[in-house]
């Protein structure tokens, strides 16, 4: 180790004296990191075997998607993350403006994962993850590196504590759709990554998971200002101003290769801190419940999940909340969440050659209470009565290389909002999109 430090100091002096004039700070940093990694490798020869594995190991994959759509759709990141087809929009000639196909090729799912190991802490095995991809954090910075997961994990014999950013507890990481599309079964199942504190208690065949989450990349809808005009937009302020984090509980039961479970969350938002110039403390409270199962019989597996909940737009699903009543004299605004029912299932067979089919259905159940006055909606899909999807796929894997093909049929039923019956959607007309998707992967 001393030899390594001497070498490092010598190289730094050389860099300062000669290369500094020719290299920018980014290149210099890369060189120094490379030197440090090499010194660590040499230094490990003098380290006791019990600590040689401490550090970080990188893995990930390169992925490219070729996608053809028969219709314009509601999407994220240049049509890459598909939600559902857009409603019919007729021009002066009676032609549907949204009935236009599109084609795209993107590699923004390419991912890098760093798995960290460290010495024990208070008798707990210590580990962590840093993971990112080139998906960007907004449409304007697509192709840039974006944080996905970053957490510290402490594992005692039966108790695990995780602190950091990871999948939302309602995204069951050992029971989610294995579709080729990056939407991962959205909008039929929760999809969100959140900064959180998560405690897992193992009791034989049962795991109890308790978590408190904030919002970052995946945010609720709330009133925001855009060019001097108030609109419905994504913001974490409504969650932060509520002070209370999203509270979650999940119960998992394992029986051999099979998995069963249920759970839910309670969420509080404060859409505004003032209304018509007067301070307000009005909140919108919501809940969600889910049940899931995974059955594995050799190379054949079945996955199922059902959700009934409110205000799930921050999990890339439909729903949100309505302004229930406005009192311009008392200067108050009250809210009520919208209800949602969703379910999905998947059948899969094979290993090196996998043949599978995914199916999902979600339904807008309207507002939880009658709308007295106001009627402004903050969320996603207020005029959608339901969404249906069927997606068969074939995946071929050889070593570190994988090729996949998927046909994704998605239908959305749009209609009018019935203001006399809790804002339910009536008189619907369905539109559909077929996405043909080819993908190539290289894992490392």
Tell me briefly what this model is.
This protein has helices spanning 2-17, 25-43, 237-242, and strands at 55-69, 73-76, 81-85, 102-106, 111-121, 124-133, 146-155, 159-167, 193-203, 206-213, 221-226, 229-234, 246-255, 258-269, 274-275, 278-279, 284-297, 300-310, 319-327, 332-349, 353-367, 377-380, 384-398, 401-418, 424-443. It is mainly β and 444 residues long.
Layout of helices and strands:
Elements (H helix, E strand, L loop, with lengths): L1 H16 L7 H19 L11 E15 L3 E4 L4 E5 L16 E5 L4 E11 L2 E10 L12 E10 L3 E9 L25 E11 L2 E8 L7 E6 L2 E6 L2 H6 L3 E10 L2 E12 L4 E2 L2 E2 L4 E14 L2 E11 L8 E9 L4 E18 L3 E15 L9 E4 L3 E15 L2 E18 L5 E20 L1
Antiparallel strand pairs: 1-4, 1-5, 1-25, 2-3, 5-6, 6-7, 7-8, 8-9, 9-10, 10-13, 11-12, 13-14, 14-17, 15-16, 17-18, 18-20, 19-20, 19-22, 20-21, 21-23, 23-24, 24-25
Helix pairs in contact: 1-2
The unreliable regions are 1-49
Q: Approximately what portion of the residues adopt beta-strand conformation?
A: over 45%
Helix content: under 10%
Query: Counting H and I runs of at least 4 residues, what is the number of helices?
Result: 3
Outline the biggest β-sheet: 16 strands, antiparallel, barrel
Alpha carbon gyration radius? 25 Å
Distance separating the two termini: 30 Å
Commentary on this structure:
By secondary structure, this protein is mainly β. The chain is built from three helices and 25 strands.
């Amino acid at each position: 180790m001393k030899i390594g430090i001497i070498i490092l100091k010598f190289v730094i002096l050389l860099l300062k004296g000669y290369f500094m004039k020719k290299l920018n700070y980014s290149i210099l940093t890369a060189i120094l990191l490379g030197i440090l990694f090499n010194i660590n490798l040499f230094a490990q020869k003098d380290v006791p075997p019990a600590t040689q594995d401490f550090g970080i190991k990188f893995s990930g994959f390169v992925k490219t998607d070729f996608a053809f759509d028969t219709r314009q759709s509601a999407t994220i990141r240049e049509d890459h993350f598909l939600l559902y087809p857009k409603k019919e929009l007729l021009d002066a000639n009676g032609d549907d403006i949204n009935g236009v196909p599109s084609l795209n090729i993107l590699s923004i799912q390419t991912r890098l994962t760093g798995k960290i190991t460290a010495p024990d802490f208070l008798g707990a095995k210590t580990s962590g993850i840093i993971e990112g991809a080139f998906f960007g954090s907004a449409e304007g910075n697509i192709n840039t590196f974006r944080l996905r997961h970053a957490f510290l994990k402490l594992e005692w014999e039966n108790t695990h504590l995780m602190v950091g950013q990871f999948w939302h507890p309602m995204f069951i990481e050992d029971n989610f759709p294995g579709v080729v599309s990056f939407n991962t079964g959205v909008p039929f199942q929760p999809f969100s990554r959140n900064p959180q504190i998560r405690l897992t208690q193992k009791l034989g065949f049962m795991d109890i998971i308790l978590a408190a989450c904030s919002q970052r990349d995946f945010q609720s809808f709330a009133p925001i200002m855009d060019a001097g005009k108030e609109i419905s937009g994504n913001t974490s302020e409504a969650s932060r101003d509520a002070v209370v984090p999203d509270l979650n509980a999940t119960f998992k039961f394992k029986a051999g290769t099979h998995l069963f479970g249920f759970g839910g969350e309670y969420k509080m938002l404060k859409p505004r801190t003032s209304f018509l110039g007067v301070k307000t403390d009005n909140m919108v409270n919501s809940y969600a419940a889910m049940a899931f199962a995974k059955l594995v019989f050799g190379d054949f597996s079945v996955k199922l999940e059902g959700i009934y909940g409110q205000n799930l737009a921050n999990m890339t699903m439909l729903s949100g909340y309505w302004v229930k009543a406005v009192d311009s004299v008392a200067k108050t605004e009250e809210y009520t969440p919208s209800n949602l029912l969703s379910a999905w299932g998947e059948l899969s067979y094979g290993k090196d050659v996998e043949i599978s089919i995914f199916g999902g259905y979600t339904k807008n159940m309207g507002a939880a209470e009658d709308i007295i006055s106001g009627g402004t909606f903050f969320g996603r899909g207020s005029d959608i009565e339901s969404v249906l999807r069927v997606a068969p796929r074939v995946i071929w894997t050889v070593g570190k290389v994988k090729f996949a093909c998927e046909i994704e049929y998605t239908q959305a039923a749009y209609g009018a909002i019935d203001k006399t019956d809790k804002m339910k959607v009536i008189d619907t007309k369905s539109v559909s999109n077929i996405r043909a998707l080819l993908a190539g992967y290289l894992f490392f």
